[in-house]
UniProtKB/TrEMBL annotation, chain A:
Belongs to the STXBP/unc-18/SEC1 family. It is found in: Endomembrane system. InterPro entries: Sec-1-like_dom1, Sec-1-like_dom3a, Sec1-like, Sec1-like_dom2, Sec1-like_sf. The keyword Membrane applies. GO terms for cellular component: cytoplasmic vesicle; endomembrane system. This is Vacuolar protein sorting-associated protein 45. It comes from the Eukaryota. Keywords: Membrane, Protein transport, Transport. It is a peripheral membrane protein. Pfam families: Sec1. One of its GO terms (biological process) is protein transport.
From TrEMBL, chain B:
It comes from the Eukaryota. It holds the Pfam family Rbsn. The keyword Cell membrane does not apply. This is FYVE-type domain-containing protein. The keyword Methyltransferase does not apply. Residues 147-227 form the FYVE-type domain. One of its GO terms (molecular function) is zinc ion binding. PROSITE patterns: ZF_FYVE (PS50178).
Length: 573, 461
């Protein structure tokens, strides 16, 4: 169940089928990202792929008949039309065509009718139709997927094909559960279920051995946990995304002062960067230590290099040269990243903020917390967007509190020209069940949760900055322990007989975007031997999540935030 | 007969069941007495190895176990499912269906194209010079459609009259107006009919000419079929320079890779003090790798100088090829370890020899001590005499072969000389894999020879 490997194997197979000789890879916007997440350009050069082209951009009519053309595109209408035109006047010697998902037979017929010069050698469906970010994390790359709290239809279609792609790449035919009460999760679950049944010939995998339940596809909704994407993060990948934004494994550093030109954009790929792979989930403290050690050993070597006196020195140097060179590149990159991160953390007082955030989401202590937030929101040194995050969390946390101070906080945010309209929007976005369950406002009847909270309290806090446990982690633990979840997460197919044993493999998909904090939780479970894959319409940080909230609540009526009417419109800000 | 406590089960010869007391003695005994039972020996050796491992491991394991308790599991593995062998994802092949649609269509085109080519051929053979006669010639071959039946040009739908006259396609006989007519020059037509005598590389010349003197008038449809055919032929026949150079580059790469691994092995072995390869070998091989690197560099530079338009695909691919070649050279060839200096190697070798000698000496002493111990305690028949028996005597070990002559006639010496010759040849041909096996052979022979010499000495004593 390694997603990166799954995509790599598909690509390798395509290249292998094209055989020896110079090759060009013809892709569309999305498949370009899919491939770039699996292989670097250098690796593709080694596989004799020397040219990369987008089918959807302006292309010259220059013909290079000595090239073999591997076409890897999504089976969309526009792509089929473009490919038909390409085949009518072929620019390359031969074509090996791969679609990233299920393609209707009529489209194949249309293509076959265009291939008058007999240049097509292969037509296949492969199912690499998702971005493989980590071995167990994927994204469909839809920045915003809802409108008026319901699906945008193309986002729904894309999500269905993305999930189908993951299932077929891993050869899994799952049972499907969704979060009850979420219309969007149910719709998606139904669509995936229907597709699996319609394409049952594709999904005819050998069922698991006796008694082992089939893998579970669990479809969740972001609005059941809008807190996680707002929190300040402290593990490497999550921090980089929160503070610098990772896009298709790339981080744009061009507006960082004093960055050398080769580091204007850095690639963060666990596949190509050992250091990154090892420290993806390390926390800020650990990574700072690691990088210091790395620099020390690097300096040591650099010093050795200076005094090459004997031949043995030279030999040592030459022998270690490749790693040496590689290492210096990695060290530089991560050094720049870490120093940029720590600069931002210091400048935005994120340690202080994070402590308050964690305190707020884990402990009810209204008056003290409100006092702190009030003070921070008005302070100049606190970033306006960070102040907004605090108010958002507060407003959700204490929405029903008798002395709720949201209006006051919004007024001081308004003075600083903050985006006050986001608060009512967020209160429309958060789901009903999140309102009642997300915070520790536990009903006395829920004995299990109550005891767990008690135990948690007794254990003490290991790290003030990472107290928060995302909903997903708790849920997955419950499932693996075999606790009944039918009430909250019913099967889409009501005739599905629940297995007595809990599933051993789970694929989670979060409508409205997953987060790297959840990816960390999934990673920790996998470390314990469970097998979980996490995916989402996208991977959010606070900034992108707020965009999602704005888009999702657009056109939705204000139901829960009438008291905040003064802040409804963006123009007020 | 023996005091039971003294018999160590592990050292009983599996064939003759004699107790040999000690690893060295047993192995020696086995080599001498039972060398014919080769397969048995190997099994015996294997068993022995396993036993040895087990004995040696015993302590290590208990040690490891104690370690394991204190060893923490690594919390940050690179991947979660690291040990998993992953099967490739699902594929669906649509090519059969694609072909089922495409091929009949192609076939239809093919028959049509073939018909046109046959006609074109006929039109060109015995083509008269006089224009009037040409028309007659053409009409004889292809039946022209009656002009009265056609009122409008079929491709542009304009009516024919005095200034828009009817024209016939010389290949299918259909009618069109002058504006819709296409022309194929006689030269091009000839090259389509017999592609073999077409040798020009210049494919940039526009083969469609607008009404030249010496050309054949035809409709768009016929021209399209012919052009498609020509393109398919061209792409099959012509091999642009870039492909030729590229193939050279790839062959070079493929050829040099085993040399590079060999070189690395050689340097490694030299540093270990082995004498299989000499410094000169390494030098020669390094030279070869170096010159290949240069050729690769030159070839890829040549690719870069090929004529191309700025900003074209051709330019992009040339740059990309050059980049790939540079990467290859950088990663595989420039990073090769240096050849060690001769003195250094000599030092290493001497050290190694010294170590070996010490080890031999130590082993021998140990064996001797063991012998003496048992000899004294049991009055066991002197095993030392057995060291004298030769391999030829296994079936009859009562006697000794007396005359082993150490001279040039000795087949062993002869064999050794032959092998030395082979090694020399192989070295000249840079076939280092062979040298390795030959050297191993030679060593065995030398060992054998030494044994015999020993034996002879013994028998003389």
């Amino acid at each position: 169940m390694n997603l990166i490997k799954a995509v790599q194997m598909y690509i390798d197979k395509m290249i292998e089928e094209a055989g020896v000789g110079m090759k060009i890879l013809l892709m569309d916007r999305e498949t370009t990202s899919i491939i770039s997440m699996a292989f670097s350009q250098t690796e593709m050069l080694q596989k004799e792929v020397y040219l990369f082209e987008r089918i959807d951009s302006g292309r010259s009519n220059e013909r290079l008949k000595y090239l073999k053309c591997i076409v890897f595109i999504r089976p969309t209408r526009e792509n089929i039309l473009r490919l038909s035109n390409e085949l009518k006047s072929p620019k390359y010697g031969s074509y090996f065509i791969y679609f990233s998902n299920i393609i209707p037979r009529t489209d194949i017929k249309a293509l076959a009718e265009c291939d008058e010069s007999e240049s097509v050698r292969e037509v296949k469906e492969v199912y690499a139709d998702f971005l493989s970010i980590n071995a167990n994390l994927f994204s469909i790359n839809i920045p915003t997927c809802l409108h008026a709290l319901n699906w945008q239809s193309d986002a729904l279609d894309r999500s269905v094909s993305g999930i189908i792609g993951v299932l077929l790449s891993l050869k899994i035919r799952p049972t499907i559960r969704y979060k009850i009460g979420s219309q969007v999760a149910q719709t998606l679950a139904k669509r995936v279920f229907d597709t699996i049944n319609k394409e049952s010939s594709l999904f005819s995998f050998r069922p698991p051995e006796n008694g082992i339940p089939p893998p579970l596809l669990l479809i969740l909704d972001r609005c059941d946990d809008p807190i996680t994407p707002l929190l300040t993060q402290w593990t490497y990948q999550a921090m980089v995304h929160q503070l610098l934004t990772i896009k298709n494994n790339r981080v744009d550093l061009s507006n960082v002062a004093g960055v050398p030109s080769e580091l204007k954009e850095v690639v963060l790929s666990a596949e190509q960067d050992d250091f990154y792979a090892k420290n993806l989930f390390s926390n800020y403290g650990e990574i700072a230590t690691t990088i210091r050690d790395l620099i020390e050993s690097f300096q040591k070597r650099a010093k050795e290099q200076k005094k090459i006196e004997t031949i043995a020195d030279m030999k040592n140097f030459v022998e270690t040269y490749p790693q040496f060179k590689k290492m210096s590149g990695t060290v530089n990159k991560h050094l720049v990243l870490i120093s940029e991160l720590s600069m931002k953390i210091g400048k935005r007082s994120l340690l202080e903020l994070s402590e308050l955030e964690q305190d707020m989401v884990c402990k009810p202590d209204h008056s003290a917390q409100l006092q702190k937030i009030k003070k921070l929101v008005s302070e100049e040194r606190i970033n306006v967007e960070d102040a907004l995050r605090l108010i958002l969390m507060y407003s959700m946390r204490y929405e029903r509190h008798a002395n709720c101070g949201t209006v006051g906080l919004l007024n001081s945010l308004k003075e600083r020209n903050g985006r006050t309209h986001l608060v009512p929007k967020m209160l429309e976005y958060i789901s009903q069940s999140a309102r009642s369950e997300l915070f520790n406002t536990v009903k006395i009847t829920d004995a299990v949760k109550l005891t767990r909270n008690l135990i948690k309290g007794l254990k003490g806090i290991e790290n003030v900055y990472t107290q928060h446990v995302c909903v997903l982690k708790e849920l997955l633990e419950e499932i693996f322990k075999g606790r009944p979840i039918d009430q909250q997460y019913p099967f889409i197919n009501s005739s599905e007989v629940p297995y007595r044993r809990p599933p051993t493999e789970i694929i989670v998909f979060i409508v409205g975007g997953a987060t790297y904090e959840e990816a960390l939780a999934v990673h920790q479970l996998n470390q314990l031997g469970y097998r979980v894959i996490l995916g989402g319409t996208t991977i959010h940080n606070s900034e992108t999540f707020l965009e999602e909230v704005i888009a999702a609540t657009n056109g939705a009526p204000f139901k829960h935030s009438r008291s905040l009417q003064a802040f409804h419109n963006a123009s007020n800000a | 007969m023996f005091d039971e406590s003294e018999i160590k089960e592990g050292f009983i010869c599996p064939i003759c069941k004699s107790d040999e007391k000690n690893i060295e003695v047993l192995l020696k005994h086995f080599d001498e007495q039972h060398s014919e039972e080769k397969d048995l020996i190997t099994t015996f050796r294997d068993v022995f190895k396993i036993a040895k491992k087990k004995i040696l491991n015993f302590d290590e394991k208990t040690f490891e176990n104690t370690l394991k308790i204190s060893k923490p599991t690594n919390p940050f593995q690179e991947y979660d499912f690291i040990d998993e062998v992953q099967e490739i994802g699902l594929f669906t092949n649509h090519f059969e269906y694609f072909k089922a649609i495409r091929d009949p269509r192609i076939e239809r085109y093919a028959t049509e194209t073939n018909k046109l080519i046959i006609r074109l051929n006929k039109l060109l053979t015995n083509r008269p010079n006089d224009p009037q006669q040409i028309k007659q010639h053409e009409q004889n071959l292809v039946p022209w459609i009656d002009g009265k039946l056609v009122k409008l040009c079929p491709s542009c739908a304009k009516s024919f009259f005095l200034t828009r006259r009817q024209h016939h396609c010389r290949l299918c006989g259909s009618i069109m107006c002058n504006d819709c007519s296409q022309f194929l020059s006689i030269d091009e037509s000839k090259s389509i009919i017999s592609p073999s005598n077409e040798s020009k590389q210049d494919d940039s010349v526009d083969i469609i000419l607008k009404q030249p003197e010496d050309s054949i008038r035809m409709c768009e449809h016929c021209l399209h079929l012919l052009i498609t055919r020509k393109e398919m032929q061209d792409s099959k026949l012509s091999k642009p320079i870039i492909t030729k150079i590229y193939e050279q580059i790839e062959t070079l790469k493929k050829e040099i890779m085993p040399h590079i691994t060999m070189y690395e092995k050689m340097i490694d072995s030299l540093y270990k003090g082995d004498s299989v390869y000499t410094l000169a070998d390494a030098g020669v091989l390094r030279g070869k790798i170096g010159s290949t690197a240069e050729t690769l560099d030159d070839l890829s530079k040549k690719v870069l100088t090929l004529k191309c338009m700025k900003g074209s695909r051709q330019e992009a691919i040339q740059k990309s090829l050059r980049m790939a070649a540079i990467k290859f050279i950088k990663e595989n060839m420039l990073t090769l370890p240096q050849i060690p200096v001769e003195e250094e190697i000599k030092k290493i070798q001497q050290k190694r020899i010294m170590e070996l000698n010490q080890k031999i000496e130590r082993d021998r002493r140990l064996a001797q001590e063991a012998f003496e111990k048992y000899d004294l305690s049991e009055n066991y028949p002197a095993t030392s005499s057995k060291t004298g028996s030769s391999i030829k005597m296994v079936d009859n070990w009562s006697g000794f072969q007396q005359n082993i002559q150490v001279n040039a006639n000795d087949p062993l010496v002869e064999q050794m000389n032959i092998i030395k010759g082979y090694i020399k040849q192989a070295r000249e041909a840079l076939r280092f894999e062979e040298i390795e096996t030959l050297e191993a052979n030679l060593k065995e022979l030398q060992h054998e020879y030494w044994l015999r010499a020993q034996q002879k000495e013994n028998s003389e004593n």
